[in-house]
Amino acid sequence: MCRLLGLTAGREPIGASFWLLDAPDSLEVQSRRNADGSGIGFFDPSGTPVLDKQPEAAFRDEGFARVARRARSATFVAHVRFATTGGATVENTHPFTMRGQIMAHNGGFGDVPRLDEQLGRYGDLVLGDTDSERYFALITQQVDAHAGDVGAGIAAAASWIGAHLPVSSLNTVVAAPGELWALRYPGQHALHIIERPAGASSPAAAATGAAGAAATGLHVRSATSSVHAPALQALPSVVVASEELDGESGWRMLASGELVHVHPDLTVESAVVIPDPPAHLIPLPAGNPNIDT
To answer: Quick check: pTM over 0.90?
Structure first.
């Protein structure tokens, strides 16, 4: 049932290869259980979203590994897909971008035609067949309805779906340049957060030596820009993920209905914005690995 990752260092470009490839439970590892697609989203130096995604498992995709090692951005969103709605196509592969933002979703909901009615003209933003991209279009609609307040838009969109449609999970990460929002709703699927101060280093990475490559700064040069990307360990950062990716002890599970907003200065705001359970919860079968205990 998919796995997602959000990472931000605020205003400083960093690499995400440790979390994507090298951590003991990296997204590449998770893709062996979620093999219907993989993607990485980030922002170029001008703040324009960049997506690299394919309907192929990350562990099989050389392009995923290449981008994971080379990309530098202040903010990343990444996803490995276990398809439930929509076929294995590029258009249905996460993450998605709309209006300069990037989004990924873990979970699912039913009665998509009713959501299409609610979207109206915002349905024109949807390029594929997934419930997830329609969820993003509803978030975009509600951000506009709330005068550009992204957090309020996420809360309103998830609240509408929870009140009107059958829901298993609406866990999502939404990113803008230097900012990150994450919602866990309801409590069936995990979503964790860790705030990492400058100088933090994963004990698991240290034990395996995987952090060695990540600890080296990289000078990236192109025809239009030249950016020095300091090492991840040298900068504070905030990570949101479906699973605890490494051996650090600072991970915290978000509460059901909790929305987190990470600002460009890495200030973290958090509140339970949807206190009530969905009107029509789709329970996961007993023994399903997505159930959180």
So the answer is: no
